[in-house]
């Protein structure tokens, strides 16, 4: 490893959408930025093996709850955006109600990013079949905004969730690369142990990297380690309780087979439907064969293991009630009665769509989740500027979301990061009054 920096203008802990957006904005303004990422930064290969290393190691990227449900996160450069389904949704109204106006940031990002519905030629046959059936059933199923470069995206490809090796999918690694071109430094495989405080304010971090413990000083520290990592760092720094509740956007995949399609390899979440008043959303969910097989086996549907290429799959996602706990070494959350009712309602709608599509042998997966958040919410742990009660210490990731939402958070986190970066850059240029 090159010599480790002893100081900088700002330290960003974590490189997912929130952290990468802050780092890019600050670096473009001329700040000396150090990004510390716990995961690796190897080029994305688009393989099951690499994805598993990012998101399937128990206690690191994967957490099994008492009810046998699974929560996953991506521990890698770019965070979970590296292995997500590349779907975008506008920021939730709960932020605007608290006085966090992201309209300008969203407009700027939408104008810049490869963000919009896929062209028809990239909508796979299974997604088309599901969309037609949903519309025939009277539902307002529509194309979803995707963070994908259509000119590079390939038909018959299933690698979104493995990590796109072709550069078609936008990820936070794009902003990381840009930040580094502006002079930021990314250190991967770096585990931050705690935030250093001096005089009642943040003064840097203690980090283990390259087999050694380093101290890096900075007047600004931004925790962007995710809905699990950031509250743990606050606790390790003596700034938060050992356990905090969270939400996670639980998902059930509802699957059924048809006889007249042969597919199984297409962009997932190409189209869908949100019912915000009910806290339920839907999308087509083409899965790689190993993931489909795992879901089928988990619920005992061994008879469907060979039906992957003929199986239509619909994602049912809910905005769950906050509860459970993120602890120092464990994470656990079970469904509430209200959560179960939402999922039953969503599953019933999905089954109706599959019946309309002519699917048979319909079954539901066990619920799983991939959006841990709400563990350092605005109005409780951070203010509307995302600063904690400790001056100089900020949080910018899904931990700050003030309420369950049930939709993809990537665009919201990019907006929050851009906003925070602009605020910090402006504050750095202010001069004290004479």
TrEMBL record:
It holds the Pfam family GMC_oxred_C. InterPro entries: 4Fe4S_Fe-S-bd, FAD/NAD-bd_sf, GMC_OxRdtase_N, GMC_OxRtase_C. It comes from the Bacteria. It comes from Pseudoduganella albidiflava. Residues 144-174 form the 4Fe-4S ferredoxin-type domain. This is Ferredoxin. The keyword Iron does not apply. GO terms for molecular function: flavin adenine dinucleotide binding; oxidoreductase activity, acting on CH-OH group of donors. Keywords: FAD, Flavoprotein, Oxidoreductase. The lineage of its organism: Bacteria, Pseudomonadati, Pseudomonadota, Betaproteobacteria, Burkholderiales. Belongs to the GMC oxidoreductase family.
